[in-house]
Amino acid sequence: MKLTLKIWRQKNAQAKGQMVTYPIDGIDGDMSFLEMMDVLNNELINKGDDPVVFDHDCREGICGSCSMFINGEAHGPDRLVTTCQLHMRKFKDGDTITIEPFRAGGFPVIKDLMVDRSAFDRIQHAGGFISINTSGNTQDANAIPIEKADADAAFDAATCIGCGACVASCKNSSAMLFVSAKVSQFSLLPQGKVEATDRVMNMVKQMDEEGFGNCTNTGACEVECPKGISLENIARMNREYLSASVKG
Predict the structure, then answer these.
(1) Which of 156, 147, 241 is nearest to 196 (CA)?
(2) Is-contact 226 61, C-beta < 8 A?
(3) Residue 39 belongs to what domain range?
(4) Residue 153 and residue 200: Cα distance in Å, rounded?
(5) Using the 8-state DSSP alphabet, how is residue 190 labeled?
(6) What dihedral do alpha carbons 111, 112, 115, 116 form, nearest 10°?
(7) Has residue 134 got a pLDDT over 70?
(8) 8-state DSSP, 23
(9) How many domains does the chain fold into?
(10) What digits encode the pLDDT tens for the residues 1-37?
(11) Is residue 179 classed as helix, strand or coil in its secondary structure?
C-alpha cells in the first residue's frame, strides 16, 4: 500500500508543534501499525532526519503505552485493541492517516507522539492500595466467600491498563473511567473495603488536582477503551464518593 501519513511533530512540551506529511510505500496489510511506524522511522534515519518518537513496550496489548490518536480515534479505527494490535489491513491503499498524541492537559507532550502519563500513577498512589495483615496470621484469600457477580466485576475493572484512551476520547479530558476502574477493583472485594472511604476521596481529589475534567456522559470513553471498561464503574465510583462524603 501507498499511504500518506500526517504526523504531529513536537520537540518538547514547550515547543510549538505542527503536523508534518510523510508519504510511505510498500506497507503490507499484515503489518501492525507500529511496524508501519518502524518502516517510516527507518526511512527517516537513512535520510538523516529525526525519527518520530512514540511510546511502546510490550506490543501485545498489555501495557497500553502505545497510545496514538489515529484518524480522530484513540488507538485507531478497530475496537478492543491497542495501537500495537491495530493492523494495516484496516486501511486502504491511498489512504491519508492522521496520527496525533493523546491530547489532554493532564498528559503533557514529551516529544512528538509521546506524552507524560505519570498523572495516572499519582492518582493510583493517592489511594490505590489495601492494608494487609502480615503478622503471620493472615487469612487465606480463598477462604473468604465473595459473590461471583462482585468477583467478576472486580476482575473486569482490573483489566484497565491505564493507557489513557478514555481521557483522549473525552471532550472534557475526563479520567473518570480510569479512576472508577481502579476504585472498583478494590471496593468490590472484602480486602478493599477497609480503606474504601479514604481511597475514593483521595483518588478523586488527586484526579481533580491533575487537571482532568468531569464526566461528559457521552460514553466515548467506553467505546474507545481497548479493554471495554464499562461506564457502570463511573456510576459505582459516584455512589462510593457520595457515601464517603456523607461519612466524611
Answers:
(1) 241
(2) yes
(3) 3-111
(4) 17
(5) G
(6) 0
(7) no
(8) E
(9) 2
(10) 999 999 999 999 899 999 999 999 999 999 999 999 9
(11) helix
